[in-house]
């Protein structure tokens, strides 16, 4: 929501004990005790009066029993998670029974083939495949997972209604039906570069291992790899195509 950044949400959580409790307060109380300005009150009023989007998307708070325990242990745990898909997939993520596959958005044919093969083999072995649903390697891994009738998990850097890139809209819908999509970004939140880097902390914390398939020096995949190393998550790297200059 416009005007509701992380600092504002954390303040509401500190004052009222939780975001769920804040949402049940009368608007005058929110304005006075939550230090909300007139514009924020108007935005919140409109949001509360707006019917939920279709198909229904679900919401998890840290106090919810279904909220994944590994996310609570982060230095910066998400204040909320918006999700859609098969709720049974959360159990896999809670015990980190999943593998992440990440890599270049402009991947070579060699990398795309490897990513799709990995996604298929992991699905055959019963392991959910986690990625950021970016173009290139992420998308290829999820196509392989879907082909193997597995459980794909997309950790989005945008809100759930937004496909980024747009070319992945159909794939994102398939992932939401076969597995799970989730994001810490609320509906209507503008696309910001920092959100894509921030979601990597969520992705890494929920997996047993991270596989990097072709990784430019400046990329989200490299950020994820560094986070994996810092967290002690096993890091696997697919050999580069020796024939590519």
CATH architecture level-2 label of the largest domain: 3-Layer(aba) Sandwich
Query: Strands across the major sheet, in which order?
Result: 1-2-6-5-4-3-7-8
**CATH hierarchy class name of the largest domain:** Alpha Beta
Largest sheet: 8 strands, mixed
Helix content: 40-55%
The beta-strand count equals: 8
Q: How many separate domains?
A: 2
Q: What shape does the CA trace take?
A: elongated
As for the CATH topology of the largest domain, it is Rossmann fold
Calculate the mean pLDDT score and round it. Answer: 87
For the CA atoms, what is the radius of gyration? 19 Å
Report what the structure shows.
With 245 residues, this protein is an alpha/beta fold. It folds into two domains: 1-50, no CATH class; 58-237, Rossmann fold. 44% of the residues lie in helices and 13% in strands. The protein has eleven helices and eight strands. The chain has helices spanning 6-16, 19-23, 27-33, 38-49, 69-72, 89-94, 109-124, 137-147, 169-178, 193-205, 220-231; strands spanning 58-60, 81-85, 99-103, 129-131, 152-155, 180-183, 209-213, 235-237. Strands 1-2-6-5-4-3-7-8 form an eight-stranded mixed β-sheet, with helices on both faces. Helix 11 links the parallel strand 7 and strand 8. Helix 7 runs parallel beside helix 8 (137-147), helix 8 crosses helix 9 and helix 10 packs parallel to helix 11 (220-231). It is elongated, with a radius of gyration of 19 Å. The chain starts with 5 loop residues before the first helix and ends in an 8-residue tail after the last strand. Mean pLDDT is 87; it is low at 51-56.
